[in-house]
Amino acid sequence: MKQQTAEKASLIADQIREKAGQAAQLVRDNTPDPVLEKTSQAAAQVWDSATRAGQYAADKAPHSLLEKAETAATVARVNRTPLLVAGTVVLALVLVRRRRARRQ
């Protein structure tokens, strides 16, 4: 029973990764190049800021908290595609909303 559950969970995870990859490709195909460029620049800035904040937090945080953060980071790395898709979709929606607000 335990093995069947693990196999089913693995199958579902594979299906989610596949759907997320398809969604990411659909977003990339339907997003104008300037938006993709701004998204890439914003992602680089967020990455740099997160790196600095992470280093600062690591310097100040207790050991047990660092272990929990490492576990969360591992989970995020394993599920990178769905997280990137979600982030891209949110950023695209924010940019579209800002653009519409400027027009009004």
Tags for this entry?
104 residues, 93% helix, single chain, mainly alpha
How large, in whole angstroms, is the Cα Rg? 18 Å
Structural class: mainly alpha
Helical percentage: over 70%
Series of secondary-structure elements, N-terminal to C-terminal = HHHH
Describe the biggest sheet?
none
Oligomer: single chain
For the record, give the distance between the C-alpha atoms at the N and C termini, rounded to a whole number. Answer: 59 Å
The proportion of strand residues reads under 5%
Report the principal-axis shape.
flat
The count of helical stretches stands at 4
Task: Give the overall pLDDT as a whole number.
Answer: 83
Poorly predicted runs of 5 or more residues: none
Please report the total strand number as a whole number: 0
